[in-house]
Specification:
The structure is a homodimer. Chain A has eleven helices and 16 strands. Chain A has about 350 residues and is of the alpha/beta class.
C-alpha cells in the first residue's frame, strides 16, 4: 500500500505507523483532525510531502464533520494542523491550497477529491524528480543519503530515494550508503527497509562515518530531501544534513537536494528565517525505549538544520534540475508551476 | 575507584565494566591474561591509555602464572594481548615496555611494580596534559568533545577530559557539548556520566548535530583524545573524529588532540599506514540489545578514522602543546621522553 490511504466509504485515513517500523507493520486509522494531528506530531507519519497530503485528508475529515460554518471549521482545523510541525513548508502549502479551494465554494466530497488529487500528484511529481535526477547518477555510483526521503516520506516512490529508485531501475548498478540518522533513526529503520524491499544494494552506517567513507573515496554523490527551501536556495532538512553538505564540499563530492516545488518558500529570503523545530530531549536520551544516558542529563534536539545554498550542487525538482544562482532558478520554477495551476 | 585497580594480595585486576555504564556499576575481576584480553576485546575496558595499563597488569598475571620460561611466557601473553585491538598503539607500547623490563631480568613482583608505576605515571601524565591544555581554553568556553577520553579511558583524570577538568577546576566557567558517539555511545553513556559526577555543565548531542551548533557559533573549541598519532601528526581516533575536524576547520574553530607521548608512533610516517579496526556490524544494527534495522541489513563498522594533521590545531601532551610542523615537534617530544626514560 501507499504510505497513507483514504477509505472513501468509511471516511478514514489509514497510515503506516513509522514509529514501529521495521519491527512491526502496524496501521493507524485516523477518523478526525485531532487523530491526524496526533499522528503528525508523534511522527507516525513524517516526511514533508507525506504530512502535507495527510493534512489535506485531515481537512476533508474536518469538512465532513462540519455542522454548518465550513470555512470557519476548516480554518480552525488548519490552525491545529499547521501548528503540529513548524519546519516543513509543504504542510502549510497543502492547508492553504485546501482553504483556497474551500473559499471558492466546496463541500466535504470536493475537499476529499482535492486531497486525492494532491496524493496522486505527489506520486507523479516524485517520478519526475526521479527521472530528472537520473542524469546526475553515474554508472556504478555510490550514493550517500540521510534520513528517509523515500516512499515513506511521501505518498509513494520518494524524492531523494526516487532518484535512487530511478537509477536502480535503469540498471546503473548503484550502491547506497544509508546514514542511520539519529535520533529518530529514519535511515536505519525506514530507508534500509525501503531499499531492501526494492532490491537496492545498501550499507548502513552511523552518521559519524560519512566523512570517513568520503575520505576513502567511497562516495560519489550525496542526495537528500528537504523540508523547506528559502528563496536563496538555503535548505532546511533533517538534522545532520548540514554536516554532510560541508563534508561533501570538502571532498568535492556533489551534494544534491531532491524536493517538489511545493517545498520552496519564496516568502523567506534565506535559511536564517526558517523556523527550526525543537523536539523532546527524551528522543535523544532514549532509543526505542532504552535509556542511553545517565538520569538528569540535558540533551539538545533541534530536529532540522539549514544548509546554505553555496553547498548545494543542484536542487532536483519535478520542473527540472535547478542550479545556482538559486534566487533566479527557484523563482522561475515556482512561477512556471503557478502558471500551470492558474 | 580508578578505572582499573590491581589487588596485590589476591593478584586480581578489577575493572569497572564500561559496557554496563551508566545503567549498572558492575566490576569485572580478571585473574588471567585471557580474562584481560576478553575484557579489552569486548570493550569492558577501553580507551588507549587504559588498555595499555590493563595489558601491563595482564603481563604481571602472566609472570605470576609462569612455570619457568618467564620470557617465553610473557612473549606469548604479549601476542595474545597485542592482537586484541589493532589501532591503539599504547597497547603495544605497554607490552614492549614490560618485555624490555623482563629481558633485563625480572620476576612477577617486579613486573607488577612496573605496571603499578605505569598506572601512576598515566595519572600524572594526564594531569600535566590538563595543565598544558588549560592555556587553550578561554573563559566561558563551549567545548565540544567526542567519544570518551576521560578518566574511564585512562587510569584516572583523562586526556581530553583532563583538559576539561583542569579548565572547570580553575573556574573558567566552561560548558561541554558531548557527542553521543555512535555506535558504542561512549559519549552518551560514559562522558556524560563523568562530567555529571565532576559537576561540569554539559549538553548531550547526537553526532550529526555538531555542524549545526558550530554554524550557530555555539562551539569555541573541540578537544578529543587519540589512539595513535603518526610521525606527520595524522591522528587515528574514534570514528567520527575526522568529520568533526573537517567541520571545525570549516568554521575556523580550533581542533585539539590531547594524548600522552606514548600515543605517538614515529615508526608510521602517515595516517594511511595506521591499521583501522573493523568491529562487528551487530554493534551498529543493535543498540543496547535492541534491533534498530531490518533483518539482513549490512552495516559497516570501522571503529576509528584518521584525521590528517592539517586539521589539527595542536596536540596537547605531557611535554607541552605541540604544533605544526608535526614531523619536527613530535620527534622532538618523543626524543625528550626517551632521554628521560634512558
Amino acid at each position: 500500500m501507499r504510505t497513507l490511504e483514504f477509505d472513501p466509504n468509511a471516511w478514514t485515513l489509514t497510515l503506516l505507523d513509522q514509529t514501529r517500523l521495521p519491527r512491526e507493520t502496524i496501521f493507524v486509522v485516523c477518523r478526525s483532525v485531532e487523530d491526524v494531528a496526533h499522528a503528525i506530531r508523534s511522527m507516525q507519519v513524517r516526511g514533508a510531502p507525506a504530512i502535507g497530503v495527510a493534512a489535506a485528508y485531515a481537512m476533508a475529515l474536518a469538512a465532513r464533520a462540519s455542522s454548518g460554518d465550513l470555512i470557519g471549521d476548516l480554518e480552525k482545523a488548519a490552525d491545529v494542523l499547521g501548528a503540529t510541525r513548524p519546519t516543513a513548508v509543504n504542510l502549510q502549502w497543502a492547508l492553504d491550497r485546501v482553504l483556497a479551494h474551500a473559499r471558492s465554494g466546496a463541500n466535504a466530497a470536493s475537499v476529499l477529491a482535492l486531497a486525492n488529487d494532491m496524493a496522486d500528484e505527489d506520486v507523479a511529481v516524485n517520478r519526475r524528480i526521479g527521472a530528472f535526477g537520473l542524469d546526475l547518477v553515474p554508472e556504478g555510483a555510490n550514493v550517500l543519503t540521510h534520513c528517509n526521503a523515500g516512499a515513506l516520506a511521501t505518498v509513494d516512490y520518494g524524492t531523494a530515494l526516487g532518484v535512487v529508485r530511478a537509477a536502480h531501475a535503469s540498471g546503473r548498478g548503484i550502491h547506497v550508503y544509508v546514514d542511520e540518522t539519529r535520533p529518530f533513526l529514519q535511515g536505519a529503520r525506514l530507508t534500509t527497509w525501503e531499499l531492501q524491499q526494492a532490491g537496492v544494494p545498501l550499507t548502513l552506517i552511523t552518521d559519524n562515518m560519512a566523512g570517513h567513507f568520503m575520505y576513502r573515496r567511497k562516495v560519489d554523490l550525496v542526495v537528500v530531501g528537504a523540508d523547506r527551501i528559502a528563496a536563496n536556495g538555503d535548505v532546511a532538512n533533517k538534522i545532520g544534513t548540514y554536516s554532510l553538505a560541508v563534508l561533501a564540499h570538502e571532498h568535492a563530492i556533489p551534494f544534491y537536494v531532491a524536493a517538489p516545488i511545493s517545498t520552496i518558500d519564496l516568502s523567506i529570503p534565506s535559511g536564517h528565517a526558517i523556523p527550526i523545530e525543537e523536539r523532546s530531549s527524551g528522543e535523544v536520551t532514549h532509543i526505542q525505549g532504552v535509556t542511553i544516558a545517565p538520569e538528569g542529563v540535558e540533551a539538545a534536539h533541534p530536529a532540522f538544520d539549514v544548509t546554505p545554498a553555496r553547498y548545494v550542487a543542484a536542487i532536483i525538482t519535478e520542473r527540472g534540475v535547478l542550479r545556482a544562482p538559486y534566487t533566479e532558478s527557484l523563482a522561475k520554477a515556482v512561477q512556471a508551476v503557478d502558471q500551470l495551476v492558474a
